[in-house]
Amino acid sequence: QVQLVESGGGVVQPGRSLRLSCVASGFIFSNYGMHWVRQAPGKGLEWVAIIWNGGDNEQYADSVKGRFIISRDNSKNTLYLQMNSLRVEDTAVYYCVREFNGVGPDFWGQGTLVTVSS
Amino acid sequence: DIVMTQSPLSLSVTLGQPASISCRSSQSLVHSSGNTYLNWFQQRPGQSPRRLIYKVSNRDSGVPDRFSGSGSGTDFTLKISKVEAEDVGVYYCLQGTQWPPWTFGQGTKLEIK
């Protein structure tokens, strides 16, 4: 079955960096685009970024553009999110989500919590 | 960016009664392909979101048939024919027609009366 397992969350000071990882299994990872979606505590869902299956095309939400970098290693079935210049408002659970063939996100991981605080 | 607006934001329903959630988009969600990329997600307390419906009315595998989606253009609805206790949670609509960004509705919290 499809599994997405995120890791790398934690507490970090404003202005610092953090890298999230997501290991995929149960499907052919290299055939699918992958998203990061986040959810601030007690709030709704916010799309963050997507990387398409080949890894050569990415798009970002305006709120993270220029600070976050999405990447993937298809040989390791792993998705990454490099988060730089972190802000308090980046505090959220970050979900790794599979893109369903242009229809939109379908399967979600369990999420990893990032807390940005001094 | 397309703005998605859900209503109501909270819903209290008696077990066995129907529930309906509206989602409106600021622009038509009809894609140039002719498809409409409007999806619905359920997030139970303490869990990750789970997709229920894709392309307006297609139920995902394993989703009970009491869940149905309908609508067109800018107006969409998620209906639960008879609410069960396991349906408690927050429901989100998502547009995937015009991106980036993919945009979610604010969420509708369903509770049992």
In short:
The complex is a heterodimer of chains A (about 120) and B (about 110). By secondary structure, chain A is mainly beta.
Key structural traits:
heterodimer, A: 118 residues, mainly beta, seven-stranded mixed sheet, B: 113 residues
Task: Describe the structure in your own words.
- The complex is a heterodimer of chains A (118) and B (113).
- Chain A has 118 residues and is an all-beta fold.
- Chain A contains no helices and eleven strands.
- In chain A, the strands form two sheets. In chain A, strands 2, 4, 5, 6, 9, 10 and 11 form a seven-stranded mixed beta sheet that branches.
- With 113 residues, chain B is an all-beta fold.
- In chain B, 0% of the residues lie in helices and 48% in strands.
- Chain B contains no helices and eleven strands.
- In chain B, the strands form two sheets. In chain B, strands 2, 4, 5, 6, 9, 10 and 11 form a seven-stranded mixed beta sheet that branches. In chain B, strands 1-3-8-7 form a four-stranded antiparallel beta sheet, with no helix packed on it.
- In chain B, a hairpin with a 6-residue loop joins strand 4 and strand 5.
- The model of chain B has no long low-confidence stretch (mean pLDDT 97).
- At the A-B interface, strand 5 and strand 10 of A face strand 5, strand 9 and strand 10 of B.
